[in-house]
Amino acid sequence: MQKPTLLMTGPYPEWEMPLLKASYHVLKLWEAPDKAAFIAAHAKDVRAIASRGDLGAANTLIDALPHLEIISLFGVGLDAVDLAHCKAKNIRVTITPDVLTADVADIALGLCLAVARNIPQGDAHVRSGAWANAMLPLATRMTGKRMGIIGLGNIGMAIAKRAAAFDMPIAYHNRNKRNDVPYAYCETVEALAAQSDFLVAVIPGGAQTQAMIGAAAFIALGKEGYFINVARGSVVDEAALLHALEKGVIKGAGLDVYLNEPKPDPRFAKLTNVVLQPHIGSGTFETRRGMGQMVRDNLAAHFAGKPLLSSVV
Ligand code: 8YV
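That is the input. Now the predicted structure with 2-keto-D-gluconic acid docked in place:
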């Protein structure tokens, strides 16, 4: 039987490639020098897209593929796929939930600690030999400080669980109050910021959350507060964040995501009160193996006519 043609929009971990190639005729869009010509040449064959949460699939790509049946995303972010468009065209969409929850929560807490305790500065201090001449300035305690979580979904809950181990009182903001958690609910991001020392964003990106964390939230968080983002760059008004960091409106930030990835605004790199990571919240061998498996399992289920494991459309 002929293998179905699978279009990949960007690289996966290399161990995934032989596994995918065993079942599919794999096309690598990102390696094509002329993407439009590549798509036009293969459009009729493509039955599936394997993409990533951060890359998604544009409607122009979807519309160019007349026999597209399924988009399988390596990640949980849905902001880069137009679900209504997929639904209207009867194209299934799958994600990789749960497997990445713990790692994204871990990196959120890691960023809190790294920025408050000046871990990168301490590392540089030892490496450079500066320690022989001077002590590192004192840092800020994290234990017992107030944790504010914007987006109390699965990852938000995992962050809360970890924050509880640091004796942090926990509050959150969601579109709706949850009745199944003991944490304090704030109706607005600004109200949550006003009662947080660490304000962590973990809400989905997309039109509904576009720039929802802005200047007023940073003023409310205040000059002793830290902002952490493991969600999407789009959920923050990035100009307001840069201003808040440059002017000391807030104390610091730990960021895994940016508006322009992989080339974030160069002003971030000039700041000494930020810890920056290259969108690696889910970036462990363990999690990425689980994500790859889930992409393949969803695709295999689709082509076997079985129920999908984790479809959103
Ligand atoms: C991944 C993500 O980093 O889940 C998401 O939506 O952004 C991340 O887990 C990305 O999709 C893989 O590169």
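The pocket of 2-keto-D-gluconic acid is lined by residues 52-54, 74-77, 100, 279, 281-282 (CB under 6 Å).
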